[in-house]
Request: fold
Amino acid sequence: MEPLYIIVLAAGNSTRLKSETTKVLHPILGRPMIGLLLETLRTLKPKKIALVLGHQKEAVQAYLGMTPDLVFAHQSQRFGTGHAALVGLKALKHQAKVKRGKVLIVNGDGPLLTKKTLTRLLKSRAPLSLLSTKLKDPFGYGRLLRGTKKEVFGIVEEKNATLEQKKIKEINGGVYGVDWNFLEVALKKIPKNPLKGEYYLTDLVHLAVKAKLLVEAFCLENSEELLGANTREDLALLQKVFLKRLIKEHLAKGVGMEDPEQVYLEPGVKVGPDTYLESGVRLSGQTQIGAHCYLEAGSVIQDCRLSDGVRIKAYSYLEASKVDSGSVIGPFAHLRPDNVVGKHCKVGNFVELKKTKLSDGVKAGHLTYLGDSEVGKEVNIGAGTITCNYDGKRKHKTVIGEGVFIGSDTQLVAPVKVGARAYVGAGTTVTEDVPAGALAISRVVQKNLMKAPQNKDTIKKSQDNKSQGELF
Ligand code: UD1
Ligand code: CA
Reply:
C-alpha cells in the first residue's frame, strides 16, 4: 500500500463565530472539534499528520500535546486554503522518509467525517479525488462544476459564483485525496484569487483537468458528514448530528430512553444495558453507568461511576463520584467531587456530599451537608445534619463509626469522631469525640413557661425570668 500523509487546515480565525477562541478548539459534545477529527484521522494509520495552525496556535498545540505522528506547521498569514496546504506539505517534506504516496487534505472545521467515507475516498486511483454532497441550502459552500458527461471540471466559491452557478446544489466538502507528486507541482501553480486575494485550494481541480488528470468526486448521499462549522448555528447543528449518532449506538446496545432527542451524552460515556434514561438526562466526561440503573429527569452526571442497579432521582447533580449498586440518590441531591457511596445507601433530597465516604447501608434522607467525612455501615443521619468542616482556614475531618444514629439538626464540629453505635440526640452540637455506644446530647433543658400568670408566685417567677432576658 502506498504511504498516506494527512494535512489538516486549521489556521483560519473564527470571524464568523464571533469568538475569542479559535474555531478548532470549540467543543462538540464537550471536546474540541480538532480532537474529534484527529481521532478519526488516526484510524487511517497515516505516516504523519501535518496540522496547519495560525490563530491561537499555542493553545491548539497545548491541547493536542506533542506526539510522534503530529507535525505542527505555522501559517503566519491567512493567504487561503491553497497556501495553507502548501505550508502543510512543506512541513511533511521535512519529516517524510518517502516523499510519495497519497495526501489526504481536510478542513479542520469538519469533524463529522467517518473512517468509512475516508477509506472509500482513499481507494480512488485518480490523482485527485474529493468528497461532495447535495445540499438543499448550499449557501456559503464551494459548488462543483460538472460537464456534459458529469465529469468534474472545477469548483467555484460562493463569492465568485454567477447567479446560475449559485443554483448548483452539489457542494465541495473540503476533503481531498491527492497524489503527492501532483500536489507538489500544482500547489505552486495556484493563482491568487482576484476577488478575495487568497489562494484557493479548490483550484486544484482546474489544474488537474488542465493537466488531463482524472478528477473523481464521491457525492455522499448523507450530507451530514460534510457539515462545516462556520457559524454558531453550524456548531449547534454539528453537535446535534454527532449526538444523534452516539444516542443511536447506545440504543442499539440496550440503553432505554424516554425520548432519545432529549438526552445529552458525550463520547467518553459508557452506559450498561437495561439502564433507562428519562428526558433531560446529561451524562458527560468519562461517566460510566452500570446495567439496570434508572436515571430520572434532569439528572446531571459528570465523570462518575455508577454500579448496577443505581437509581438517580430527578434533578440531582453528581460530579466525580462513585456510587455502588442498589443506592438511591436524590431527588435534588448534590454530590460534589470525590465521594464514594457504598451499596444500598440512600442520599435524599437537598443532601450535599463532598469528599465523603458512605459505607454500605448509610441513610442521609434530608437537608444535610457531609463534607470531608467517613461514615460507617448502616449509619442513620437525621435531617438537617451538618458537618462543620471548615474553620476559616483549613478543612477538617468527621469520622462516624458503624451503626451510629445521628439525630436531626446535629452539627458535627470537625475534627471530630463519633464511636460505633453511639447515639447523638437531636439538636446537638458535637464538639468533642463521642465514645462508642455513648449518647451525646448538648441542649438547654426545655422550660415551658405560661403566658398568663395565674397567681402571685408565677408573677414573681415571670418577672425574674424577664430580668434574665428571657422572653415569653
Ligand atoms: C472551504 C472551501 C469550499 C468548501 C468548504 C467546505 C476553499 C477556498 N473553499 O470553504 O469550497 O465548500 O470549505 O467546508 O477551500 N484555513 C487555513 N488557512 C487559510 C484559510 C483557511 O488554515 O488561510 C483553514 C480554516 O481554518 C478551515 C479550512 O481551512 O479549517 C477551511 O477554511 P474556511 O475559511 O472555513 O473555508 P470555507 O469558506 O468553509
Ligand atoms: Ca469552513
User: Anything to note?
Assistant: The chain is about 20% helix and 30% strand. The longest strand covers residues 170-179. The longest helix spans residues 232-252.
